[in-house]
Amino acid sequence: MIDRRINNRVSFTMTAIPHVEVVAAVLMSRDEQHFILACRPAGKVYAGYWEFPGGKIEAGESPREALVRELREELGIHVTEASPWLSRDFDYPHARVHIHFWRVTAWEGEIGVSAPLEHSAVCWLNTDGPCSLAPMLPANLPILKALVLPTRMGITHAAANGVRAELERLEKALEQGLRCIQIREHDLPDARQQGFVRSVMALAAPQNALVVLNENGSGRASEFARLTGAHGVHLTGKTLMQSVNRPNFPWVGASCHDAAELAHARALELDYALLGPVLPTPSHPEHPGLGWEAFAELLKNAGLPVFAIGGQDASTLKTAQSFGAHGVAGIRGW
């Protein structure tokens, strides 16, 4: 006789964590030296916390449409100039939030005057100063560091241009507003490279300019950065993909060419990435470049500030930002 048993199956009801699409506005002053944070009012989740103003993207809305609506409702202003900046995922206890951060550089109306102010307070802060406001929504903390990052990066080429000529070029560029320098001089002998780094640091210090050294995996750039007080290192694409941990420097970036490299840069929690070439360059005119549409597509899940490189200079900055770039980088044109 066959013993037939019925296996009782216990089913568990799993409550899925909601996935929420949110837009957040980084409102910048005209000179881009100041930005706004807002304090969440009583009665809302995380009441009393400081944040970048914004809110949920409603069904059928684009991120830009949601941005315009939220700032009209919350701050009483009408956005006239805005560009996508970066996006990040963050897990709160109540939901997984995908935040689209936009840089807002022009608007009509006065905050809290032409319409009711939904936040309990707003505050203008310096982009290059420490933020004393607390508590801060956790998802916004990395954005505060990204705001310190200048939007133009000059890459040195002293091995080709000559050390003295390159230092003169840097001095002039710093006087004209350049605030971020990547030293990429692997072809210089060690002694000359270290001397060049020290000279660049001396020029950059009075302007509070950020200086990073290009690290190709040899360890020389990291050593020179520690010896000279440079602010950090910039990883080549190959060095990036060989790295399993973030180098121990205040500022670390990397050169990226595709989605896999961008994903690894994000996983290492790097501060920024260079992506390109976007357009043809004089040194590689045969390379058509990614083009702006492909560049923008790669940025959708980058999760960190990205500089466009390849055919870029100060004149392409606004175009690059309109496609989601943090800024532009290059050997020429700075």
Major sheet details: 8 strands, parallel, barrel
Shape: globular
How much of the sequence is in beta strands? 25-35%
Mean pLDDT, as a whole number? 91
Structure class: alpha/beta
- Helical content, roughly? 25-40%
Strand order of the largest sheet: 8-9-10-11-12-13-14-15
What's the N-to-C terminus distance? Answer: 89 Å
What is the C-alpha radius of gyration, as a whole number of Å? 23 Å
Tally of DSSP helical segments = 10
Number of strands: 15
Low-confidence stretches: 1-14
Name the helix and strand elements from N-terminus to C-terminus, one letter apiece. EEEEHEEEHEHHEHEHEHEHEHEHE
3D structure, described in words:
By secondary structure, this protein is of the alpha/beta class. 27% of the residues lie in helices and 27% in strands. It has ten helices and 15 strands. It has helices at 63-75, 141-148, 158-161, 163-175, 190-204, 220-228, 237-242, 259-267, 292-299, 317-322, and strands at 19-27, 34-39, 50-51, 54-56, 78-92, 95-108, 121-126, 152-155, 180-183, 210-215, 232-235, 251-256, 272-275, 306-309, 327-330. The protein has an eight-stranded parallel barrel with strand order 8-9-10-11-12-13-14-15. Helix 5 links the parallel strand 9 (180-183) and strand 10 (210-215). The chain is globular. Mean pLDDT is 91; it is low at 1-14.
